[in-house]
Amino acid sequence: MNTKQNLNLTLKIWRQKNNRTKGRFEIYKISDVSTESSFLEMMDMLNANLIDQNLEPIAFDHDCREGICGMCSLYINGRAHGPDTGIATCQLHMRMFHDGQTIVIEPFRSTAFPVIKDLIVDRSSFDRIMAAGGFISVNTSGNTLDANSILVDKEDADKAMDAAACISGGACVACCPNGAAMLFVGAKVSHLALLPQGKVEAKRRVLNMVKAMDDEGFGNCSVIGACEVECPKHISLDNIARMNREYMSAWLDK
């Protein structure tokens, strides 16, 4: 059975020239949007209409459009990435909406994510946290051991893989009332702390990454759990607990 429909929608979109100017919501009408199109394709349609009218298109982030890169950071009708779960905005389809609906589209809101323009925010704070310790220092001169020669417990390998699924999109920060980044940092710390290659620098890593997180102005975690619910990859709160244990152990050994 063909369930394809065309929607007529009202879009209430945040417009802001840069982080030094005041932003505002503007209303746009769009018609004949196929329910088979993605949310970003709908935004492309809107921008094509604006360009045809010699109006400035809406700036929004996107790259892979496959749920991998984490660039498509939109807050849609009060939820990070919109009304579906376990997806990034690029994987959201217009069948999740109904004809005549008003859709409110905002950038991710966080002191640590200043607005660049319209719906694009600067998430380079995540990059600086990663630069503080989210890596393994190894000699890559050709003398490295084959990965299979280092045995890893299956349970630890699975947990490390689950943590490594984090795409650094920032939905955890956007939906947290405190603007905390602990799910992101917890995932990055856990990924490496669970593997033998990451244990050498584990203590220095967690101390440096947590300090960088605090320096960037992210809030504190109060275990509300919205981050886990809205994360496109369902990163578990267990990673925050693991990071706290790693941090306490490293702090006591200072």
TrEMBL record:
Residues 10-126 form the Succinate dehydogenase/fumarate reductase N-terminal domain. InterPro entries: 2Fe-2S_ferredoxin-like_sf, 2Fe2S_fd_BS, Beta-grasp_dom_sf, Helical_ferredxn, SDH/FRD_Iron-Sulfur, Succ_DH/fum_Rdtase_N. Its cofactor is [2Fe-2S] cluster; [3Fe-4S] cluster. PROSITE patterns: 2FE2S_FER_1. Belongs to the succinate dehydrogenase/fumarate reductase iron-sulfur protein family. NCBIfam families: PRK07570.1. This is Succinate dehydrogenase/fumarate reductase iron-sulfur subunit.
